[in-house]
Please model this.
Amino acid sequence: MMRGGGNADAGGMDEVARLGNRAGLLNRRSFLVGSAAGFGALGLGGCATTDGILLAEAARVYGPMPDEKFPIPAVDVSKVDPKYYRRTVRYESKEAPGTIIVDPGNFYVYRIEGDGAATRYGANVGRNGFLWSGDAYVGRKSEWATWTPPKEMIRRQPEAAKYARGMPGGLDNPLGARTLHLYQNGAYTLYTVYASSEPESIGTGITSGCVGLLSQDMIHLYARTPVKTKVVVLPA
Model:
């Protein structure tokens, strides 16, 4: 059972959203403020190499994705603390391989790989007052999803009314390139794990309860996560 004072409010969009500057679209971050193999080569015990090599590897893993429906630019990895780069780590768990574990207190998302290992991704999480914990599962998945603000958000933020019928998928859409929609007992919780294009948000609590990964990390996790996958959100 989820607990905490969180309100997913449009899939984790922040309450202080404002109109964006690009093509008249709502600014993505304002709503949010509201190759495991590659990093696995660095070792399960952490990185034992130089910062220069780590940065070069990060630049490769977080490079541009031009073949996407909406081409994704490279991540400015200088804006991400290296401890949040994707990597394979030691992680003992009784959960089955494939299970997703969210650790909001440390801003990590783990995918259990088995044999004491997990793929670890850096994340942004809910801000104070919007944190929650409990078990859920992936009820559905979507690529370049349409985002629709709820009536409650539109009442607070009239500028969101222009998207009452939905904001089409794209680089400015708050849900990003991939979304895992979290369910409990057959009902959509409004919480998601989504793709963020804001590298400076990783390692911070800025959302209304949703969990954001860098787009490249989210695409990596999404491809390995079937519907019905268990998701465990730990207490912060």
Observations:
- Residues 63 and 73 are 7 Å apart (CA to CA).
